Amino acid sequence: MWANVAPATYNNFTHFDLTSIFHDADEHHDRGHGGKSSHTLTTHNPEASREDHLVADASQSAEHEAAEHEAATEVTAAGHTGTLTLHFLVTDLFMALFFAIAAKEVWEALLPGGALSDPRKAATTLLATLGGIVGPAGLYVVGVLLFSSMNLTSWAELGRGWVVPCATDIAFSYLVARIIVGAGHPAIASLLLLAIADDAVGLVILAVFYPTGVLALQWLLLSVGAVALRFVFQKVLKLSSFWWYLLIPGALSWFAFYKSGIHPALGLVPIVPAIPGWSKIALTPWGKSS
Question: Are 95 and 265 in contact (CB under 8 A)?
């Protein structure tokens, strides 16, 4: 609701550079201990007039607005600000962990004896994924054309949004399904596979048709190397703690997706599914382990 009613303040909040809090604290600390900035030099000049103060304040305000505009431009043009923001933490980092947990359950379901070990069941789910992409996108296009014919909007305004309904709200659907059918039900694995495949296709569509920056797919070679490193950890070094896999191969794969221009929310998927120890932290609606 906030994003739709007041998008400017919402964007300012979610894209606020959290590191600036510490920078401002350091600057305040320096001033309190005799540190001088260009503004303090101006205000402590006994020959400066009130107009000089106003000019200095206006200049600093303009510089601040220019810096904010530059940061906003970086968000739009490159997709990444290179700063620590709430948007970055949630969509790029925490969602990568959530996708990893979901992918782990799908991986276990695909193994012999799992709910999706039969290739026909997995194929049925993937066909349903196709319907989950084409159906919502088609309805969106029909809706925009209908409202355009009524002069309520135009294709130029809303036509490019057809990719938005392609994605499945994996977090919401996952938790609701766990509440309805319970943990371990075959429908859970099928739903997760559908949602992950659906979101993966949506992210590929965004990367191809709506790029936020230049695609650098050569960075994905680093993700391939991270997968190879995972096998070394598992088969050669016999490491059993999932933290080794998450913090080294996982971080490398996430960084590869981040640099390649593909959304890093999928960065851990190639690494995490077969990592030992994930069963101890499986996600449930009540925050308990299964």
Answer: yes
